[in-house]
Amino acid sequence: MPMINFTHPLTLLIVSLLFVLVVVLARETKKSAITAVMLFVFAGGLVAHAIMFTTTSNLPRDVASDLIFTMVFDLIFVLISFIAYLWVDDIEAKIKKKKSIDNSLDWFWGKI
């Protein structure tokens, strides 16, 4: 069954490092499209894993457990990449002097 399996620590480490490198690249180039692509990749992975979980019948218990664990980490990466997208988009709007409708991260930073 082909899938990105986040139960392996090495896979989780590699994906986390790639995530950080992509966010740094997006911040340095001030292009929010880079983080948007990353957001859609993680959302697509979540959809693919959910389809795999629901359509495959009689999954062994360990495979089902791995899929659920992977979907949880997909959700975590979607959330973090969404916040990264909002952050880089705010940086890009300030650099290009675009008028932003709202400050999308004020709700987040106000709670911390």
Gyration radius, to the nearest Å? 17 Å
Structural class: mainly alpha
**Structural shape:** elongated
Q: How many strands appear in the DSSP assignment?
A: 0
Share of β-strand residues = under 5%
Largest sheet: none
Distance between the termini: 40 Å
Number of helices: 4
Low-confidence segments, given as residue ranges, are: none
Portion in helices? over 70%
Overall pLDDT score? 85
**N-to-C SSE series?**
HHHH
Question: What would your notes on this structure say?
Answer:
- It is a single chain.
- This protein has helices spanning about 10-30, 30-55, 60-95, 105-110.
- It has four helices and no strands.
- The model has no long low-confidence stretch (mean pLDDT about 85).
- It has about 110 residues and is mostly helical.
Short description:
With 112 residues, the protein is mainly α. The protein is 77% helix and 0% strand.
